[in-house]
Design brief:
By secondary structure, the chain is mainly alpha-helical. The chain is built from 18 helices and two strands. It is about 70% helix and about 0% strand. A hairpin with a 5-residue loop joins β1 and β2.
Length: about 425
């Protein structure tokens, strides 16, 4: 937060914004990779990796409360929030490119979705863990975890200054089903349109919730069958016969990935969650004061509120015998308690509104930078071809959703 926001003017109309969250990500990774530094290593990276799952809940809770505060606005743009889900099909534009680069059946897993947590389960369940389709989705998952947040932050800042798309549509487009990428994209847009920040957070939060809830069905019943058909049609025409290099990528180490496995609730876990969230809250409160001069006490109380929501959501996932992710519980709780007119609304909204999203993302991505250090060698094995496909996949779903939202907002007279 000390460095602040750096704006790079390419032309009079095009700007690239470098936000503190990018510096935090790079510095966290640098601390892990720097040879002389010994106090940040594999053990610290594993701790950061576990903490990330918890801190994603904090991001979701913050956005959910913004959604509840602006429920009237959300109902007005309801059709746009629903139809932007079809923008997820934009990932398929990467399929012919992947074939041209030498990938084979991996392209089905790579390009049928944004390749985040729910999509891993769909591909593994349908094709099996040893399949090339699973190898493809895991490759994009790893690359997206490492570079996705930084890339979409830059992509959003450039797009918002160049393209004639309404900020509301960009906010909806950022809800691609990844909490960290959603927050990073939204942070850039909110900084460019500070007077719309509350509405943008509401639309982005709801969009991301819909992507979490229904994106998996979009993948199962729409994009995945289309990807298979496209592969069958395009592979004989533009596919390569040689063995793709990415088959050397070893995925056995991801069998027990935290996003796939679901552990049980124990007192020990809750005891570990509480100090982690307390430390996170203190750091955010200090950063919020340094960067935005917000009252430390009010910010800290706001962080305690969304931390409590996070713990409740994490507990419910493990207590209730239904396969529902904690992010769904966290989102619903946050939305409900912030709806205007409810007894909790004024108290929650007052304190949580003191928290700037950029500050939360900055602290979160510092942990991400340290955590992805353990995946750095795997990242290098995937190679530049996988990076290209990942960037196209993220861009495709982002622009597809934003364009669908913009057209719907225009057609319904909202803009």
């Amino acid at each position: 937060m000390f460095i602040g926001v750096i704006e790079i003017e390419i032309t009079d109309n095009i700007k690239i914004m470098l936000l503190p969250l990018l510096y935090a990500l790079v510095m966290g990774l640098a601390l892990y990779l720097a040879k002389p530094i010994t106090f940040v290593g594999p053990k610290q990276s594993k701790v950061a990796e576990s903490a990330m799952v918890l801190f994603i809940g904090v991001l979701i809770a913050k956005l959910a409360i913004s959604s509840g505060q602006n429920m009237d606005d959300i109902f007005k743009v309801g059709p746009a929030l629903i139809l932007q889900l079809f923008g997820d099909l934009g990932t398929l534009i990467a399929l012919p490119v992947a074939l041209l680069l030498g990938f084979r059946r991996e392209v089905i897993g790579m390009t049928s979705s944004i390749c985040r947590e729910p999509n891993l389960g769909v591909i593994i369940d349908k094709y099996g863990f040893k399949s090339p389709e699973t190898r493809g989705v895991l490759a994009i998952f790893v690359i997206g975890s490492i570079i996705g947040t930084a890339f979409i932050s830059l992509l959003s800042s450039i797009s918002a200054s160049v393209l004639p798309i309404h900020p509301y549509a960009f906010a909806m487009g950022s809800g691609i089903g990844s909490a960290s990428m959603n927050a990073a994209s939204l942070a850039s847009i909110s900084h460019m349109y500070p007077t719309m920040a509350a509405e943008l957070e509401a639309f982005a939060g709801c969009s991301n919730l819909l992507s979490f809830c229904f994106g998996i069905y979009m993948c199962m019943f729409v994009s995945l069958p289309i990807a298979e058909k496209l592969y069958s049609w395009l592979s004989p025409r533009i596919g390569h016969d040689e063995k793709p290099k990415n088959e050397k990528y070893e995925i056995e180490g991801l069998k027990n990935d935290k996003y796939i496995s679901n552990d049980e609730l124990t007192k020990g876990k809750v005891k570990r969650w509480v100090p982690l969230l307390l430390i996170f809250s203190i750091i955010v409160a200090i950063g919020n004061y340094i960067g935005y001069n917000s009252p430390i006490i009010d910010t800290f109380i706001g962080m305690l509120i969304i931390s409590l929501i996070t713990i409740i959501g994490m507990c419910l996932e493990r207590i209730i015998p239904v396969n529902i992710q904690s992010i769904i519980y966290i989102s619903l709780i946050g939305i409900i308690i912030a709806i205007p007119g409810l007894p909790t609304s004024h108290f929650v909204s007052h304190y949580v509104s003191q928290i700037n999203l950029v500050t939360v993302c900055t602290v979160f991505l510092a942990y991400v930078g340290i955590a992805i250090g353990n995946d750095w060698e795997e990242f290098k094995k995937i190679g530049w071809k996988g990076i290209i496909i990942t960037l196209i996949v993220i861009s495709g779903t982002y622009f597809g959703s934003a364009i669908m939202a913009h057209l719907t907002l225009f057609a319904t007279g909202v803009i």
